[in-house]
Amino acid sequence: MRDFNDGIRENCTMLLPDAKAIREQGVAEAHRIRYEEWAASHDRSVFARIGIATPERGALKLYGSDGVGRIVPMEWPPNWLALRAAMTARMNGVGRPPVASPDSDSIPLPVFADAARGSELEWMIFDLNEEYLRTKVLPRSSRSI
Question: Dihedral of CA 92/97/103/106: which sign?
Fold first, then answer.
């Protein structure tokens, strides 16, 4: 199980751009570059959906990856509405960090604007592809236990 968890964590963190890249390259380009680097050595099927929640002009906007690394505007899926509320509260300087419910396939991760203060520049939300993980990844992980 440790190999499985490590693999999921590595997939997510490889897709997270850092604040410097976002500031220098812009949101879209920073995410495109990370996606292309990740996709060159990882199976894209691990995620059912990848979202990027970013504050823009006082509102929290959501973008999704289109499968080739470009980000495109998207509507908030119903299962992400609690995350949206928590992220909006954080954006406004109140509330706890967003956490997915224990029965969720979603993993929210922050991109910090300032590591020293821990303020969030944006969040990425990863929806795991449960079917792919159950049929392709877990059988391999259990062999190495």
Answer: positive
Spatial distance between the Cα atoms of 21 and 8, rounded to a whole number of angstroms: 23
Residue 110 sits at the vertex; the CA angle it makes with 97 and 23, to the nearest 5 degrees, is 135
pTM: 0.89
Domain residue extents for the chain: 2-143
**pLDDT digit string, tens, across residues 34-80:** 999 999 999 999 999 999 999 999 899 999 998 888 999 999 999 99
Cβ atoms of residues 33 and 40 within 8 Å: no
State how far the alpha carbon of 134 is from the alpha carbons of 33, 71, 137, in Å: 29, 27, 6
Task: Identify which of 78, 136, 82, 129 has the alpha carbon closest to the alpha carbon of residue 108.
Answer: 82
Hey, what amino acid is at 13? T
